[in-house]
Write a structure and sequence with these properties.
With 461 residues, the chain is α/β, with parallel strands linked by helices. It has a domain of 321 residues: Alpha-Beta Barrel (TIM Barrel). The chain is built from 13 helices and 21 strands. A hairpin with a 2-residue loop joins strand 20 and strand 21. The structure holds dihydropyrimidine-2,4(1H,3H)-dione and zinc ion (2 copies). The site of one zinc ion (ZN) has 4 residues, from loops.
Length: 461
């Protein structure tokens, strides 16, 4: 087995910052130390660089069927883009179809991902049809490493579950160790507002943000958390975007409830001003939960500092502006929901370190360690320690670059951050000990990424 030595850098984990060398043997980190006289077949000079764990993006949707089309990144293109951006693990979502079993959905997604991914990947399961059969199946899936289940309080007629179904799934989660992830928006009320907006002739993209009212996210967040409490189950709120929803979450956490949440870079850096861009341009920024007015951002940054928000994932779900987003020309409710982001998350969060929003170790905690622990992957992923997978990024904290669709690797024809300059970039990326990005050169291979059988949530033992 070949050995790799990463020398001269500053190792940054969620816990420590250390000027040490990292020794990799085969696929694993075997030692950290100074002046050990180690030899290796590959030596990577990390002088002036951070040596950080590969990013763990716990919320992506490659090839998701949505709104009559499919998310434009495949597992191949999406994991390649992730690698370029310093992310070495994704957890994507298999989808149960209405009337179908969890097993059938999982098999379909396993087949889509197998042999395609350049980095390691796990799967959550979207439960679109909670019934006796699918509830029974949850236990088996947890045992196979699919240990988290997403439910929707939004999208009536598609993914929506009513409160009774949600309660049953939460009860099963409590019994099996499966973590319920919730898309918390009151979809029944939203659909009324959508109908009323369209009847008034309000069809532009910006009305997507108007009808998906912040209070409807707050109400659903509170309801989901309280249902979880009744069931005696933990809950993980996905893509939290509104101050009012964060208030509900923080109140419950102050009461000792096991409620966790993620937010996404788009809610930290973009706003309803983007949704209101002239013409149809706002369609590029249509996602759900929606972007909020700018004044919500300060509350989200604070939530990230206080740990009420404990993860930053991307909800990467790209649709091209031409040929996909334009399905909603003249009717905002038909714009496919979702934004690209898997490639830019690590850099946008490093920028947040430079801007003083979060500390350097908190960057790693939010982007690597906590998502790994939350979804049963720690310490194999999310840290650099003897025994962990050698998923390592040599990160240049001084490299300035401009985010643009011209240069990104995601399979989508626009960037949400077109023209924005950020400082910091993944220079060299290792996935289980193999160099897959080498100072501007891509050396990854589709199929090298392995399926990850995940343990249960690491915060509940
Ligand atoms: N939100 C999105 O923006 N896209 C896919 C599904 C979701 O919940
Ligand atoms: Zn969602
Ligand atoms: Zn999602």
């Amino acid at each position: 087995m070949s050995r790799t030595l990463i020398t001269g850098g500053t190792v940054v984990t969620a816990a420590d910052e250390m000027a040490v060398d990292v020794l990799v043997d085969g696929e694993k980190v075997v030692a950290l130390g100074v002046d050990q006289g180690w030899t290796a077949s590959t030596v990577i000079d990390a002088t002036g660089r951070y040596v950080i764990p590969g990013g763990v993006d716990a919320h992506t949707h490659m090839e998701l069927p949505f709104g009559g089309t499919f998310a434009s990144d495949t597992f191949e293109t999406g994991t390649r883009a992730a690698a370029w951006g310093g992310t070495t693990t994704i957890v994507d979502f298999a989808v149960q179809s209405m009337g179908g079993s969890l097993r059938a959905g999982l098999d379909t997604w396993m087949a889509k991902a197998q042999g395609e991914c350049a980095i390691d990947y796990g799967l959550h399961m979207i439960m679109a049809d909670v019934n006796e059969g699918s509830l029974k199946e949850m236990e088996g899936l947890v045992g196979e490493g699919v240990s988290s289940f997403k439910l929707f309080m939004a999208y009536p007629g598609v993914f929506y579950s009513d409160d009774g179904k949600i309660l049953r799934a939460l009860q099963k989660g409590a019994e099996t160790g499966g973590l319920i992830m919730m898309h918390a928006e009151n979809g029944i009320a939203i659909d009324v507002l959508v109908e009323q907006a369209l009847a008034r002739g309000n069809s532009d993209p910006r009305f997507h943000g108007v009808v998906r009212h912040a209070l409807l996210e707050a109400e659903a967040t509170s309801r989901a958390i309280r249902l979880a409490q009744v069931a005696g189950a933990p809950i993980y709120i996905v893509h939290l975007s509104a101050t009012e929803a964060l208030d509900e979450l923080a109140r419950a956490r102050d009461q000792g409830v096991n409620a966790f949440a993620e937010t996404c870079p788009q809610y930290l850096y973009l706003s309803t001003d983007d949704l209101a861009r002239p013409g149809f341009e706002g369609a590029k920024y249509v996602c759900s939960t929606p972007l909020r007015p700018q004044d919500h951002q300060a509350a989200l940054w604070k939530g990230l500092r206080t740990d009420d928000l404990s993860v930053v994932s991307t909800d990467h779900c790209p649709f091209c502006y031409t040929g996909q987003k334009d399905l909603g020309l003249g009717d905002f409710s038909k714009i496919p929901n979702g934004l690209p982001g898997v490639e830019t998350r690590m850099d946008l969060l490093h920028q947040a370190v430079l801007d003083g929003h979060i500390g350097r170790r908190r960057w790693i905690e939010l982007a690597c360690a906590t998502p790994a622990r939350m979804f049963g992957l720690y310490p194999r992923k999310g840290t650099i320690a003897p025994g962990s997978d050698a998923d390592i990024v040599v990160y240049d904290p001084t490299a300035r670059h401009v985010l643009s669709a011209e240069t990104h690797h995601m399979n989508v024809d626009y960037s949400c951050y077109e023209g924005k300059t950020v400082t910091g970039r993944a220079e060299t990326v290792l996935s289980r000990g193999r160099v897959i990005v080498d100072r501007g050169e891509y050396r990854g291979r589709k199929g090298d990424g392995h399926f990850l059988r995940r343990d249960t949530c690491g915060y509940l033992r």
